[in-house]
Amino acid sequence: MIGRLNHVAIAVPDLGAASKLYSDTLGAKVSQPLAQPDHGVTVVFVELPNTKIELLHPLGEGSTIAKFLTKNPSGGIHHVCYEVENIIEARDHLRAKGATVLGDGEPKIGAHGKPVLFLSPKDFVGTLVEIEQV
Q1: 61: pLDDT strictly greater than 90
Q2: pLDDT value for 62
Q3: For residue 35, what are the β-bridge partners?
Q4: How many Cβ atoms sit within 10 Å of the Cβ of residue 81?
Q5: CA distance 4 to 50
Q6: How many domains, the chain?
Q7: Is 6's pLDDT higher than 90?
Q8: pLDDT over 90 at 18, yes or no
Q9: How far apart are CA 111 and CA 133, in angstroms?
Q10: Which of 38, 62, 64, 102 could bridge to 118 as Cys pair (CB 3.0-4.6 Å)?
Q11: Does residue 110 contact residue 116 with C-beta atoms inside 8 Å?
Q12: How confident is the model at residue 78 (pLDDT cuts 50, 70, 90)?
């Protein structure tokens, strides 16, 4: 059902420093920051030959990333994202298998402009999972 790994998202306390680390130290292509007010984050995409890294920084006080950084002040892996062909079919399949879809269960438009859903880390060995329709 799941396709390729779309990205690994890393919450960072300093978006500029993290971007510079990936561009200057690791030599990766790094996008400009992109505000995502509906998700409470500013994101930067690090392009790799086989996937992406998504650097997440809080946007606004109610951001879930701000809460994550309170518990993990140095930052850390926030979630992994897998591609699916049909997000509604994937959601229904996952629910039938006992997975918990977070929120109201309806897809939202993610940072890539495509429908996404998040799955509870309690069901995936402690890892928050995002699925994205491609």
Answers
A1: no
A2: 84
A3: 42
A4: 24
A5: 9
A6: 1
A7: yes
A8: yes
A9: 12
A10: 102
A11: yes
A12: very high
Judge whether 75 and 13 are in contact, CB under 8 Å.
yes
Residue 117: per-residue pLDDT: 98
Beta strands in 12-67 (DSSP E): 29-30, 34-36, 41-47, 52-58
Residue labelled with tokens 């690090």: 46
Question: To the nearest whole number, what is the mean pLDDT of the chain?
Answer: 96
pLDDT for residue 122: 97
Three-class DSSP category at 56: strand
| Structural domain range at position 101 | 5-133
CB crowding 36-75: b at 16 or more within 10 Å, else e = beebbbbbbbbeeeeebbbbbbbbeeebbbbebbeeeeeb
DSSP string, 111-125: TTSSEEEEE-GGGTT
36 is written with which tokens? 């995502």
Give the active site residues: 130
What would the two tokens of residue 96 be?
A: 């039938």
Q: What is the CATH number of the domain that holds 124?
A: 3.10.180.10
pLDDT digits (tens, 9 = 90+) for 42-60: 999 999 999 999 999 999 8
- CB 132, CB 83: distance < 8 Å: yes
